[in-house]
Design goal:
4 domains, three-stranded mixed β-sheet, mainly beta, 315 residues, 4 helices, globular, eleven-stranded mixed β-sheet, Phage tail protein beta-alpha-beta fold
């Protein structure tokens, strides 16, 4: 497995054919990470140390190198996926506008114009927010984009792509996972070490957020009454953020496991929906999950990948 390194203009700097280990963690709607360990005696090490703005590419995986550490005889590179660039710009609060509901339009407004990013993949559906889209304070463009796309269960990515004339373009994709026919279960032998967790520790059905110095109620489930109504205090300052924050207060039903035969970008994509069948003793459950991320690793004696799943709710 080779890892190729380019500068930010898309010029190839070097190819590293051998390393101790490479770890990628990629996400549907967040910034992912990259970590690579290699010998400082490697012929490519000097090139990597001398260049400041470099991108690691391995197939469809891409990351900007943000930290370089030399430790004894080892060079360690740490990176972030290219949507990290959006965390380096700030967008201002939004003025009140009751007509502001189109999620995709608001996402496009968050992309810095001087980045010259090209719009790539766009969702096929029309996505409108249930309530007026609000932003009460300044935040990074990346955080604003994540918050907006979370409203519609969408994701995003930024990638570097070489054009036929040799020029490089940064492309912004909005990811729209699809429902697949994939079923994972230990009985089918396509997943191993399955762990199922049913967690209501932080579950809430309603909460309160402070807007304009007034505590405002946000109710997620108004059917829950009496001892079944669980309330929480939200850090949000508007209804848009409160809705997203409430995702952390859901009743979590989590499945974890290592896939044996499926490969990211070949058999499934980030954001795709699959079914997981879990069975132990007399307990059996089949649940829909969205692939919200994946951990991929390559080491001298092993390699593999472990998807990250989140239960599909209210979609």
């Amino acid at each position: 497995m080779d890892v190729r390194f380019y500068n930010w203009e898309g010029k190839l700097l070097c190819i590293v054919p051998r390393m101790e280990s490479v770890n990628w963690r990629v996400y549907y709607n967040e910034v992912g990470t990259f970590e690579m360990h290699m010998s400082i005696e490697s012929p490519q090490a000097k090139t990597l140390m001398d260049n400041q703005y470099i991108i690691a590419i391995c197939g469809k995986l891409q990351a900007i190198v943000v930290i370089k550490t030399v430790e004894k005889h080892k060079l360690i590179l740490y990176g972030r996926t290219l949507n990290w660039l959006l965390k380096k710009r700030v967008v201002m609060p939004l003025e009140e506008d009751n007509t502001r509901k189109n999620i995709i339009s608001e996402v496009k407004k968050c992309i810095p114009t001087d980045y010259n990013m090209v719009m790539g993949t766009l969702p096929t559906g029309t996505y409108e927010a249930e309530d007026t889209i609000e932003r009460s304070s300044a935040e990074t463009a990346g955080a604003a984009i994540e918050s907006l796309l979370k409203l519609a269960h969408l994701g995003h990515a930024v990638r570097l792509e070489k054009q036929t004339d040799g020029a490089a373009e940064y492309i912004f994709d909005i990811l729209e996972g699809k429902e697949t026919e994939i079923v994972l279960s230990e009985e089918l032998r396509n997943v191993q070490e399955l762990i199922y967790t049913d967690d209501m520790l932080d579950y809430c059905t309603a909460g309160y957020y402070l807007k304009d110095e007034v505590w405002t109620e946000y109710t997620k489930d108004d059917t829950k009454k009496g001892i079944y109504r669980f309330e929480g205090v939200l850090e949000s300052e508007n209804k848009t953020d409160a809705g997203n924050e409430f995702n952390e207060f859901r009743w979590k039903k989590v499945c974890e496991g290592k896939v044996k035969t499926l490969k990211l970008f070949k058999d499934y994509e980030l954001g795709d929906i699959i079914k997981i069948k879990f069975k132990r003793g007399g307990f059996s459950v089949t649940t829909k999950y969205r692939v919200t991320g994946a951990h991929l690793w390559y080491e001298s004696e092993s390699e593999g990948e472990e998807p990250i799943f989140e239960e599909v709710i209210d979609e």
